[in-house]
């Protein structure tokens, strides 16, 4: 019998605490698989951020540092400056990266820090119970915008990939999704590129992954995938926003 | 070794290199800028890394990341910048990450002034960070003492797995004095087997974290931290006595103010008034034991600070009601002169 799927050595045996249908688990699996395939599990330092993914260090078989809310890019900078030859990444949600941590993410790119950021955009604050994020879509109902996000009151959602791509030190920026198997396979390729560019010493990479939050959105796991496809992708178009060639 | 004339800030920076600093992260603020400027020039020559951060928030978290991966990291700032770093300091203490933080105090509250002050005593001993934690804080009074405290700071940080504060002020930072850098005594330090450096496939992953959701486990962790703080308090508390023998008045002052108070004490001695000084060299642990050994002649304690009265709280706790504790302070960046302290003491002792 041939094995068609096996758990990555990059994952521990610990069961995740994620809600049914949440795609954090898929994204972390992709990170684990990529690091395993690149032979980097033993040479990587990960920076976990405050949010649903804070316990990432329980699920990934790598050395990790938990960071204060929004500060993972600064923590990663400290780690990379001590270990320039190790692989360093941050794994951050959209409240963490696009709200409280905007200064840190802009400046890690500005310095061209040779790290990789996995940015999980689920358009909501998951961990604290579904409040509005800078990425919450217009009209989207969240606990702190019960009538739906009013853009006259709270502005239009922040497009992080587009913003970071403008910064000279960012060499690779791509937005991907994990709403179907094809998208998942593509997301893995993008994550792999992010780590490969780091290993090649190119500069800062950010991979934005559109992700679901069935609990926060009040939808079933399947409906969440459809909601992502129908509502998030039109506002947050998938694709490459920056390549090392363009960064030159 | 010959002495050289150096600014307090620059001496601290050089002492950091001699003390084994490998990484500096910081954000500009007066009156401490000579520290990053010196290190930007000299730390790379010594094989280290200097990096200017985008903010104090980033700087302290860079220190956290560097310390978590085994680097000997430091930052320096002044009062408002230290305020911004407090969340990071709580995390450094909670994750037990060796690191060194310099505060060249200036007048507050708010943006305040760039002139010298000691109004951050609470910040440096109580912390603005959340939770039950303590940070070893050294308070030099001379450029030489600052250099020596700084040279020892990284080893102490590694030894106890703790952040260490060097509490200076704008006067000490800007003044020039002769200073020498004796060889640092070699100290056996524990291996950093806990650091997140990549497990190399040869051990279980290391995690640096401060989240402990289970209250039972968090209480256990806090008790273990308290045990460490008690150990530090028992071993590291330091003070200097100046002319306390037969003193009827004992003053308590630290840092720059202690130097001024020594002048006041000498002036009083010329008039036959016996006063002495207890000078805390560590703010936390506060040298309470110094107040257990007061001369029998002592009738009153007077705390002098460049603040509206902060360290005086610890003096009162140490004296514990046995004697009256008075306070004299100047704030807002005003440096008291010896004569005004003398005049205040005479009023206090009824000798006018
Ligand atoms: C300084 C600070 N402020 C607020 C919080 C509370 N908090 C925890 S998680 C979180 C939001 C995280 O949301 P996001 O980054 O979108 O990640 P998600 O949980 O959705 O994956 C907040 C505000 C905190 N832990 N620290």
Q: Helix segment count of chain A?
A: 11
Instruction: Report the strand count of chain B.
Output: 15
Taken from the alpha-carbon principal axes, the silhouette of chain A is globular
Strand residue percentage of chain B: 15-25%
CATH superfamily of chain A: Thiamin diphosphate (ThDP)-binding fold, Pyr/PP domains
By CATH, the architecture of chain A is named: 3-Layer(aba) Sandwich
Mean pLDDT of chain A: 97
Total helical elements of chain B = 12
Please tell me how large the radius of gyration of chain B is. Answer: 21 Å
Cα radius of gyration of chain A in angstroms: 17 Å
Largest sheet of chain A: 7 strands, mixed
CATH architecture of the largest domain in chain B: 3-Layer(aba) Sandwich
Distance between the termini of chain B: 48 Å
Query: Briefly, what CATH class of the largest domain in chain B?
Result: Alpha Beta
For the biggest β-sheet of chain B, the strand order reads 3-2-4-5-7-6-13
Classify the beta-strand content of chain A into a percent band: 15-25%
Q: Tell me how many strands of chain A there are.
A: 7
Quaternary form: heterodimer
What is the element string of chain B, with H for helices and E for strands?
EHEHEHEHHEHEHEHEEHEEHEEEHEH
Q: What's the SSE blueprint?
A:
The complex is a heterodimer of chains A (248) and B (352).
Chain A lengths: L23 H14 L6 E5 L7 H4 L3 E4 L5 H11 L4 E7 H7 L1 H9 L5 E6 L29 H4 L5 H6 L4 E8 L3 H19 L4 E7 L3 H4 L3 H15 L3 E4 L1 H4 L1
Parallel strand pairs in A: 1-2, 1-3, 3-4, 4-6, 5-6
Antiparallel strand pairs in A: 5-7
Helix pairs in contact in A: 1-8, 3-5, 4-5
Chain B lengths: L3 E4 H11 L4 E4 L7 H9 L6 E4 L3 H13 L4 E5 L1 H6 L1 H10 L3 E7 L15 H5 L10 E3 L4 H18 L2 E7 H5 L1 E4 L27 E2 L6 H22 L2 E4 L6 E4 L2 H16 L4 E6 L1 E3 L15 E6 L5 H9 L5 E5 L8 H12 L3
Parallel strand pairs in B: 2-3, 2-4, 4-5, 5-7, 6-7, 11-12, 11-14, 14-15
Antiparallel strand pairs in B: 1-8, 6-13, 10-12
The site of thiamine diphosphate has 17 residues of chain A, from helix 4.
């Amino acid at each position: 019998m041939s094995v068609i799927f096996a758990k990555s050595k990059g994952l521990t045996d610990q069961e995740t605490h994620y809600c049914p249908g949440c795609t954090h688990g898929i994204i972390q699996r992709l990170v684990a698989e990529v690091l395993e395939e690149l032979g980097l599990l033993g040479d990587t330092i990960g920076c976990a951020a405050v949010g649903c993914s804070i316990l990432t260090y329980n699920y990934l078989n790598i050395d990790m540092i938990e960071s204060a809310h929004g500060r993972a890019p600064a923590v990663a900078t400290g780690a990379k400056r001590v270990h320039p030859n190790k692989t360093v990444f941050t794994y951050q949600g959209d409240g963490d990266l696009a709200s409280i941590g905007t200064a840190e993410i802009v400046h890690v790119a500005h310095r061209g820090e040779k790290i990789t950021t996995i940015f999980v955009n689920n358009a909501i604050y998951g961990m604290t119970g579904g409040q509005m994020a800078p990425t919450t879509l217009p009209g989207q109902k969240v606990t702190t915008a019960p009538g739906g996000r009013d853009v006259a009151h709270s502005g239009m959602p922040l497009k992080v990939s587009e913003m970071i791509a403008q910064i000279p030190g960012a060499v690779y920026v791509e937005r991907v999704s994990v709403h179907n198997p094809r998208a998942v396979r593509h997301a893995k390729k993008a994550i792999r590129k992010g780590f490969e560019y780091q290993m090649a010493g190119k500069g800062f990479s950010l991979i934005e992954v559109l992700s679901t939050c069935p609990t926060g959105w009040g939808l079933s796991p399947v409906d969440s995938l459809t909601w992502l496809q129908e509502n998030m992708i039109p506002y947050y178009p998938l694709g490459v926003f920056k390549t090392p060639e363009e960064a030159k | 070794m010959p002495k050289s004339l150096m600014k307090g800030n620059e001496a601290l920076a050089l002492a950091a290199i001699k003390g084994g600093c490998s990484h500096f992260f910081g954000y500009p603020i007066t009156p401490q800028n000579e520290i990053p400027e010196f290190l930007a020039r000299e730390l790379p020559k010594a094989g280290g890394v200097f990096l200017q951060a985008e903010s104090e928030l980033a700087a302290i978290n860079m220190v956290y990341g560097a310390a978590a991966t085994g680097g000997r990291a430091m930052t320096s700032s002044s009062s408002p910048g230290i305020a911004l770093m407090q969340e990071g300091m709580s995390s450094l203490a909670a994750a037990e990450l060796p690191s060194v933080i310099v505060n060249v105090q200036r007048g507050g509250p708010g943006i305040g002034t760039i002139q010298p002050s000691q109004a951050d005593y609470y910040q440096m001993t109580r912390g603005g960070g959340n939770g039950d934690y303590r940070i070893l804080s050294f308070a030099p009074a001379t450029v030489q003492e600052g250099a020596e405290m700084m040279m020892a700071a990284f080893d102490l940080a590694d030894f106890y797995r703790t952040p260490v504060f060097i509490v200076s002020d704008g006067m000490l930072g800007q003044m020039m004095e002769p200073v020498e850098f004796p060889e640092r005594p070699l100290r056996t330090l524990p291996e950093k087997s806990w650091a997140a450096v990549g497990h190399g496939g040869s051990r279980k992953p290391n995690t640096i974290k401060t989240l402990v959701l289970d209250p039972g486990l968090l209480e256990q962790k806090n008790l273990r931290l308290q045990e460490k703080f008690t150990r530090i308090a028992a071993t590291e508390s330091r003070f200097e006595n100046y002319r306390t023998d037969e003193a009827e008045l004992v003053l308590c002052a630290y840092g720059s103010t202690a130097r001024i108070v020594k002048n006041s004490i000498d002036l009083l001695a010329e008039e036959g008034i016996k006063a002495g000084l207890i000078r805390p060299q560590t703010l936390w642990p506060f040298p309470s034991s110094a107040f257990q050994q007061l001369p029998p002649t002592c009738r009153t304690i007077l705390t002098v600070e460049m603040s509206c009265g902060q360290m005086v709280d610890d003096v009162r706790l140490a004296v514990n009601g046995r004697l009256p504790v008075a306070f004299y302070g100047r704030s807002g960046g005003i440096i008291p002169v010896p004569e005004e302290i003398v005049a205040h003491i005479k009023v206090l002792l009824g000798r006018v």
